[in-house]
Design a protein that fits this description.
The chain is an alpha+beta fold. It contains 4 helices and 4 strands; from the N terminus they run H-E-E-E-H-H-E-H. Strand 2 and strand 3 form a beta hairpin.
Length: 202
Amino acid sequence: MNDTSRWTLVNDRVLELALGLALMLVGLFRVLLPILGVSGPWSSAGSRTVRVDDAAQLADATESAALTLRGTGHAEMVLTDPGLGDRLLLALPGLTGGLLVVAILAVLLRMARTFRAGDFFVPRNTRRLTVVAAALALLGTLVPLLDMMTTNLLVRGTALAQAVRPAGDFAVLPLFLALLVGAAIQAFRSGTRLRSDTEGLV
């Protein structure tokens, strides 16, 4: 084995290790701990950053003792003693995003293992990139929509309902990355087709 192949093997191992470590950390901090926070007994308060209509006035602050706002423009909505349903609503957007990131990292880790064998342009890698692009698109669309819906459910029927504005913005970065991955899918398809044609000539 020459120095170049050894260096390539080391790079592949480092990539796999980095992806595996990232997968473990995201799974722990973005999935497992939020789940435990929903069902666990130690979390007695919960909060979320929300958009606030500066012109809105709270009808009666005493009616919202369990649900308060701190700040203007972007405020921190604090639930002093959330129940199980409230904790689930608070955790749902972040938990969904964490699961999507876990799926992306798991797929990339499987792709990295094919690189070790030198099989870049294989049909399953094209399918894996399609999964990554779909997950990124969901990160940019589904997670913000869940944030908006759960926030509306949390403030519904309270004095804060008129002050909190629903944030309907999509996340631009994941959508941009989804487009880049879409371009990479076309490159992988071309590479796979070229490799198949080349093997047919041998």
